[in-house]
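## retry 2 of 3
previous attempt timed out at serialization; input unchanged, resubmitting
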Amino acid sequence: MPQHPVLEVCAFNVQSCIIAERAGAVRVELCDNPIEGGTTPSYGTIQLARESIGILLYPIIRPRSGNYYYDEPDYAIMKKDIAICRELGCNGISVGTATINATIDTEWLKRIVEWAGPMGVTCNRAFDGAPDPFQALEDIIACGCERILTSGQKTAAPEAGDLLKQLVQQAGDRISIMPGAGIKSNNLAALHLACGAKEYHASARKIAPNPLTYINSLVNDYGNVYIADELEVAAMVDVLSNSSIH
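## retry succeeded, writing output
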């Protein structure tokens, strides 16, 4: 890992993956379904993203939105999607598991790490729903994950500097704590000063303009296309590259 802290971009389409690489991000978490927190992208999306960028690619493995308490069919889907990611040359996956009590489901997470090998595994924000973050950290380390994506159990990571600092200190060199959610170029420096993490996660997304020359204003269920803001990604990379805390 570079000496200065680095940025992972949450991308909801191939276009955003390309922007992330061009703006200096080191990794992409590739997702579908931005409105509900991200779900597994399609085979075609993963394949084209892999062909389009040279930086690290970690598709999210999440068969549905909502909680991270999955049943057998959910895990069967996840196993097949993990195999696809490996087949397509991804570097890793982002995934989360929970028991009915919201603790980390270590038995399933260990299986997922085995299914993923030799790809890396990021434990995503299932961590933020756990009742005891310090125990959850130890559980995830024991399962063999390489990092934890977390908002510090707050709505936005910049609100959780104190807890994130404690997690970074407890993790040491055993696992990377990667703050994410609500991070922008105008709050990243303060968050880094507060917690001292080595990598950060942001989508930097904006609504892409509708290019249609005719729009029926009576039909309003199209939804929006979200694209990474290249200037914002570059600004965050610049903040981290110029950080005095390594």
